[in-house]
Amino acid sequence: MKRLVLVALVCVLLMPAASPAFQGEYGYPTRDAYNATLLGTPSNLKLPPPHWVPERRLVLDIIPGLKRPDVFFYDEGLRCTFAYQRTKAPLVFVIAGTGASDRSLKALAILRDLYNAGYHVITIPSPTNPNFIISASRSHVPGDLAADAADIYEAMKAAWKEVKGDIEVSDFYLTGYSLGGTHAAFVAKHDEEHKVFNFRRVLLLNPAVNLYSSIKQIENMLERIPGGPRRIGAYLNRMVARLTDFYRTGNFEEINDEFLYSVFDEKLFNQDESGGLIAVSFRISLAGLIFASDIMTNGGYVVPKNRVLTGYDPLGDYFLVSFHLSFYDFFNEFFYPRFTGGRPGMTRGEVSDYLSIKTIEGYLKASPKISVITNENDFILTPAELAYLKSLFGPRVTVYPWGGHLGNLEHRDYMTLIINYFRQ
Amino acid sequence: MAFTTPLIRRAFLMLALVAALAGCAAPRASVLPEEPPMHTAAEFSDDENLLEVNDPWEEFNLKMYRFNYNFDKYVFIPVVAAYEDIAPVFVQTGVSNFFSNVGEFRTFYNSLLQFKGKKSLMTLGRFLTNSTIGVGGLFDPATRMGMKRQSEDFGQTLGAWGLDPGPYFVVPVLGPNTLRSAGGFAADSGVRWLAVKRPFDNIENGQWILTGIEALEAVDARHRMPFRYYETGYPFEYYIVRYLYLKYSEFQLMK
To answer: Which of A318, A408, B48, B154 reaches 20 to 30 Å from A295, CA-CA?
Structure first.
């Protein structure tokens, strides 16, 4: 407690010196953090989309001789999406957020707008995405940020090797959103040592400072739903039933944006319930992570050890159990023992502290090529962590007053900031 | 995923292929004894079941789901990709409009069967507008004039009449359905076959032309459907898709 007060005090003292508050007009409409996160950006406030994006899907063989069980029959290598210019241009790598693939809506939105601004783009799945866990993670257990970064780096090298004959590249840039932003910081550091890309500029979009702490914020949202986290199934069923009723009795013709916005205008879900929905979607991602990691390591966690599953086996029970396990369960029972296998003697507290950009803060502070965009009300950051970002990056962090966690990512102001940052 | 096209005949022809593809289950190679996992579903039996649906045919459905994944990968998507490469965008749009316009017929009689007067009038208005001003349905001026496209089929009609959806049913090529929607699809296809077959009977090679048109319709339907199997690599996709499909058809039935 004492330490926390001290940290808070230091942060408050540091803040005015490095005040990076956002200046000028800002047109993102949704002020509530949870609603912003769930709703995203209305189409008319996005940058106009290109008519057509020339792109192809890369399927990369990263780990030679890797054996994939039949239950992952659809996984044939790490999948990245590559959008290309006909002329010489910079290439931007985009690292996806927690659980997300190379074709998640946010990754594709960044790809689309950067392509339209004249860049080649490659989106990389998050190390927490099952495809990455299966086909690109050497440990098949995500979460160790430095190890994840080394895996991402190998993936980037493989992707670059695949495309470099087809395009002309002037410079390399790097970005990532959410946990992908945190990963981008570690990849940038890794690149300083291995020098394959020599990234000219690196941009972290709504990154987590500490992985454990950010997920704790999300898990906390489940504590506030009626019945608590163990009754998450009943909770979701109840929310869906309410949504169904709202649709039935309302004057809607189809499920579209109009319907979605009226769900929020009419306050169909209260604060705690909206937070619960965000946490549920996190848990759905986590379930995929747990299952993939367990199978690939024969971990005996949710699947019996030594059981060989095929693509025809029902997986409903595994989904059920994986979905109900919290991040704490996974961390304590699965991640921590494996992590400390290579580093005996570390306590849980020490390991959770280790999953933070603080371990590379010296590098981040001294590297003018790395910048951050985030929001004042992004709930994956504690107030102390936001203050830490401001003090660490100084004038290199832009903080929008609202937008929740990436709700404003596709807003034209936010996207234009990304594009202009790489143009400098 | 429910393609609005009379593919059903071909789908049945393909059942032999399906059986061959789906039958080759991978061998279980493990020789080591299994050990119970740390967590099982039984631990969480105090909670309501999540995404629970009626799926007694899950074993069959999983095989079909994988068959459809393969069919998409080796047949459907390559053909659609070639089509998107070859045909200019305005041609693709014209083709989509044309088949949508043909589909108004189905929406029209199903709206009538459900006593939805406004919907059937709107659909009739759309059909007349697009068939004339829209040059035989190649353009869609009706939407711009404020007549939104409606969609009804015999599966929904059966639902409106109070018939239960029955079990979840993954149909070869067509994908997620319920027994009711699959039956409705067969009925709509039958109606269309009766309506369309005769005029083509009188043309030389009429049945071949008809088959070509149907194939184009199938390609157009897949072209319009952005879904790609396992695109995100999520291991429980079957369960998520099943739930979302059933919810979506429940929503459809309300309007």
So the answer is: B48
Q: How far apart are CA A310 and CA B26, in angstroms?
A: 7
pLDDT for position B203: 81
Of B30, B38, B234, the CB nearest to A288: B234
Q: Quick one: tokens of A256?
A: 């579209």
Return the residue in B31, B44, B66 with the most chain A beta carbons within 10 A, the one to mutate for interface testing: B44
Q: How confident is the model at residue A9 (pLDDT cuts 50, 70, 90)?
A: very low
CATH number at residue A93: 3.40.50.1820
B250 lies within 8 A of chain A by CB: yes
| Cross-chain residue pair A233–B255, CB shorter than 8 Å | no
User: For A36-54, how does the pLDDT look when each residue is reduced to its tens digit (9 = 90+)?
Assistant: 999 999 999 999 999 889 9
Domain membership flag for residue B207: yes
Q: Does one domain contain both A122 and A15?
A: yes
A189 and A69 in a common domain:
yes
Neighbours of A24 (CB within 10 A): 5
CB–CB contact A130 B148 (8 Å): no
Which chain B residue is nearest to residue A131, measuring alpha carbons? B233
Identify which of B3, B30, B5 has the alpha carbon closest to the alpha carbon of residue B211. Answer: B5
Task: Please indicate, yes or no, if residue A110 is contained in any of the structural domains.
Answer: yes
pLDDT digits (tens, 9 = 90+) for A87-101: 999 999 999 999 999
Q: Is residue B62 part of a domain?
A: yes
Nearest-CA distance B211 → chain A (Å) = 31
Provide the residue range defining the domain that includes B204.
Answer: 55-253
Structure tokens at A83: 């959008």
Q: For chains A and B, what is the number of CB pairs under 8 angstroms? A: 143
Query: Environment class of residue A218 by beta-carbon count within 10 Å: exposed (0-12), middle (13-18) or buried (19+)?
Result: buried
Confidence of residue B30 (pLDDT cuts 50, 70, 90): low
pLDDT band at B2 (very low <50, low <70, confident <90, very high): very low
Total domains in chain A come to 2
Residue where a domain terminates, one of A291, A312, A341: A341
**CB within 8 Å: A74 and B239:** no
Same domain, A147 and A264: no
Of the residues A341, A365, A386, the one at which a domain ends:
A341
Please tell me the distance in Å from A87's CA to the nearest CA on chain B.
21
The answer to whether B204 faces chain A, any CB pair under 8 Å, is: no
Answer whether B37 sits within 8 Å of A302, measured CB to CB.
Answer: yes
Answer yes or no: do A147 and A227 share one domain: no
Q: How many distinct structural domains can be found in chain B?
A: 1
Alpha-carbon dihedral angle through residues A131, A202, A380, B239, given to the nearest 10 degrees: -20
Question: What pLDDT, in 10s, does the model give residues B217-253?
Answer: 999 999 999 999 999 899 999 999 999 999 999 888 8
Cβ contact, residue pair A310, B26, below 8 Å: yes
Q: Which residue has the tokens 């979701």?
A: A236
B230 to chain A, any CB pair closer than 8 A? The answer is yes
Q: How far is CA B185 from CA B4, B55, B88, B152, in A?
A: 8, 19, 31, 11
Q: Which residues of B touch A125 (CB under 8 A)?
A: 233
CA nearest neighbour of A136 among A176, A96, A164: A96
Give domain status of residue A347, yes or no.
no
- The phi and psi torsions of B61 (rounded to 5 degrees) equal -60, -40
The residue segments making up the domain with residue A337 are 215-341
Residue A323 has its nearest CB partner, among B50, B66, B250, at: B50
Instruction: Check if B24 contacts A (Cβ < 8 Å).
Output: no
**Is A351 inside any structural domain?**
no
